[in-house]
């Protein structure tokens, strides 16, 4: 919507609401009658974005806003008030493709005939980093970062694993706090054992952060906020031999699942291990490619995440060494529920190698997809490393490019079309749905706000 049109639209809406309020002062408010149908007539405005105000007109709504549910597709909108014939609501964030508005009251559920035209607004900014690859802690405007993977706790602490790639390569774990205006090191090493700049997971209820080791199946690291995130090496204990072959014990990621409270990690041979977060008891819940009849693809992964909207779903991205070939460049999902886990990982996007294509997930193509994270509504964000952009897979399975210029590398803040990245590697999403990006090629951490 153009600025002048938007101003006119808001002015019209304000006058409409003001006029309605004056009329309603003399009208008796009508209560919902369950024996009569709920009727929808029109809504205004016909288009807009997140947090915009909308009026829904009809009959038999009742005057209790707590009894009314309004949805844009499956995304619930906030209902402010109702006069009985008119509902005043707020457009929700990212409702999905071509949203339909539905009203649910009591046993009645009705849908407007016309679609609402939703327009997402996005802005990319730089949080920290100077472009220098050698890690240097400090204030946000002075720190140097070379982050690979990111994750957030519910307090807004942004954690990163990094490798600076300067001289004698060093690895570490760091914390970025926008509230404190500070970047600090939590773990630093130039030789083993170290987390090797791999995936991070956080239990957002306890704040416990866990980082994978990478090349030793039994080892991972935990950082407890009650101990000031002091790093502690943990050793998983297998009751039976895990059987993961030497040379394939690359555990790049570990993910906490609120579905059952366990940690999950996967080796390069495709074996998936479940670890108790307190006792460290470990079990191979499915054998990898070396096992007879295995349905699991071989190969390194470069992203792993749990869908909080469906916490039994473990997602990952497979890279160019995956075997069989049809698994390469794939977005994969594993259902952790006992009755489904033996079905193995399923590829959800199109095969066909590197490229860029938006649309339904089954038709979408990526170019070396790296890290993946979800917002609380089940939208997945992908660091599309080879395409230099950030992609979103909506909860209803539609892929869009939300920031960056596909196939063009660079460094530029701004809106979704003009913003530029250089080999984005890691992503993390906070409680408000803001996306943090480890812009690895630019040695910076960026922030994408979508409304």
TrEMBL record:
Domain of life: Bacteria
SUPFAM superfamilies the record matches: Calcium-dependent phosphotriesterase (SSF63829), E set domains (SSF81296)
Alphabetic keyword roster: Repeat
Ranges for domain IPT/TIG: 39-118
Positions of NHL repeats: 421-445
InterPro entries: 6-blade_b-propeller_TolB-like (IPR011042), Ig-like_fold (IPR013783), Ig_E-set (IPR014756), IPT_dom (IPR002909), NHL_repeat (IPR001258)
Chain segments annotated as coiled-coil in the UniProt record: none
Record has Transmembrane helix as a keyword: no
Keyword set includes Repeat: yes
Pfam families per record: NHL, TIG
Protein name: IPT/TIG domain-containing protein
